[in-house]
Amino acid sequence: MKGRFAERTRWLTASDVRELLKYAQNPRIISFGGGLPSPDSFPLEDLRVIFEELLREKDVGAFQYGPTQGDLRLREALATRMRARGIRAEAGRVLVTHGAQQALELLGRIFLEEGDIVVVSQPTYLGIFTALATYRPGYHGIPMDEEGILTDVLEEDLRALAMDELRPKFIYVVPTFHNPAGVTMSLRRRRALVDLAATYEVPVIEDDPYHELRFEGDPMPPVAGLDKEGWVIHLGSFSKILAPGFRIGWTFGPPEVVNKMSLAKQGADLFTNAFGQRVAERYVSLGMLERNLPRVRTMYREKRDVMLAAMEEHFPEDSRWTRPQGGMFLWVTTRPGLDTKGLLPTAAERGVVYVAGHGFFAGKPEVNHMRLNYSFPNIPDIRRGIATLGDVLAEKKRVKAPAATPART
Amino acid sequence: MKGRFAERTRWLTASDVRELLKYAQNPRIISFGGGLPSPDSFPLEDLRVIFEELLREKDVGAFQYGPTQGDLRLREALATRMRARGIRAEAGRVLVTHGAQQALELLGRIFLEEGDIVVVSQPTYLGIFTALATYRPGYHGIPMDEEGILTDVLEEDLRALAMDELRPKFIYVVPTFHNPAGVTMSLRRRRALVDLAATYEVPVIEDDPYHELRFEGDPMPPVAGLDKEGWVIHLGSFSKILAPGFRIGWTFGPPEVVNKMSLAKQGADLFTNAFGQRVAERYVSLGMLERNLPRVRTMYREKRDVMLAAMEEHFPEDSRWTRPQGGMFLWVTTRPGLDTKGLLPTAAERGVVYVAGHGFFAGKPEVNHMRLNYSFPNIPDIRRGIATLGDVLAEKKRVKAPAATPART
Questions:
Q1: Do B278 and B140 share a structural domain?
Q2: Range of A345's domain?
């Protein structure tokens, strides 16, 4: 069938993280690579209660075909939760998807023509690149600091683009416990972002799967909660607060966006698995989610603390890292010029893996970063793995790669 | 956000069948419209056993992120079952998807450029149109009779296209218990189809979700089992033999097709819900599927028989219909010129709905068909609904629509 495939298949590539899953499945390797929640966070006893209820009630809707937009009861439960965070949500404007990843793909499908501009932070969640790959947008990167993306740079760039009569199709952000950077966008930057969206009429996609995993500091309002004019498309997920295996994510957004995404989803897979939707709905409405979150937060805080302490002890002086107040990741910056991708085989040989920072950049990557996940490995492995990684970093002489380029592309 | 959407959104439309789901959820209306399995076919007691096992074993793989290609144990179980039907399958060439619908969308994505030719039967499963909508192929229709698509016409057309240096990207067929037509392709036509695929080097997509639901006649080898050169891409599904709510389908095909589909799936939704995959795997490997099928077949045969008998009694003389040996649908041809779509509001008012045949045709539809589903409604409803529908058909005078056009487009 050579030569018979569509041209767009040339742009399909595997993400670095997905490729790392094979290491995660080798029990002898300590993986800081995946974005996996801890298996200990899965509420198996609650699931037993939910399964039993669904079977006892012969809840046919859990097993049958269902509407493309999603189970109404789940959408109502989600809208209620979003309203409690200040988002003016309603069930009619919620679409349930197979993870937030599917929402990203559907957003690409309804918005993007080849060459359209998509604004991302540098670094950004790398699943956005695979989700949008076949739509071939051009990425415009905005650097970040400890307060999230630099909205003054964003403003400058939106203005410059507008002078050239260019307007990005959307701005993609992970404001809370950023993947991979581990930082949280400050309130003033959130306000600035919403203002820029309205001024330049550019939708913002707020990818928000981690906010419930806050173990330190005060909750921050979601960007969608500050939005008065309907420019924000808000994505949520049960993957980090229930279990990824049910594949339940959702989108809240303007009616025309949700309607077009629903039509696209109908062709893509008809509807999101009904069983997972029912489980998620019960998990919320029976109060199980609220009961479990404190336990998961405590678990992740402890793991983060262990990782930070081990890094203090074992990492070389010339490394820096973020100190997340929640979520699952932290972001390491090694000495300039050290290529973390080149280091990976050595680290894997010594029994520890991470994700090199390269894949999180649009355009030319900075080479001296790595993303470390602390939610998945257990505490002894975090101690051991960080010690090993510290050794690997310390031994490694400056490699031949050039010094890091500035973040913007 | 008006004017900001991609041009491809113009081609997104809702399928007639999805729209009918709202009737199916109104308990006062008898629906022959959906493609829903009977809720009585869901093996709730087996599911109880499986859920209990997964929880007792703390089977983390059922809840965690998993590989894009699918759970290896499930792929092995599927390969074993396919080999038993004469398909030379292996787990490495199986991809698990969110229903076979997702496989159709992924196939469109990897194969189709705008204007590429896709060959379909007339009528054909209408989900193919929504799955491929944004890729904008041109459809070439081939008429059917009681033995499936007319392979002599197909040969003639492939030859004519080849003379114009045109070659379809693929031929899409539902050979066994065709949706919507209810007929099964004969062995000689299957052989002819495989030969044509090899001769003209055009892949065949064999969509095969119903074959286990045979309640009459001898099993037919799958088209993929007759394929010596690897031109057939075979799609299967658990939606009709376990439950649609888990959303588990699969593709077996040439390595380069499965690899490209996997890459596309990674961007689309990362992986198929792990819980549903584990449930499907246990359902097969614990022998539950084989134990349940006889019960489901008996149930559906009885429903078909009741529907056929009621049609004999109540439908007007000038109607004809197919007599399926399995599956979930039969296909009615009313007198020429009667427009079944125009009749639908009257029927719904009287308490019964069906799917008008129009949506199953590429190009200009024949207007005097309807698809009737017998797997979902219960037996008293089948009797009552068919009687009502017979009345509606008999009362209805010839409507203004022109006589049906020939099936080919």
A1: yes
A2: 7-43+290-395
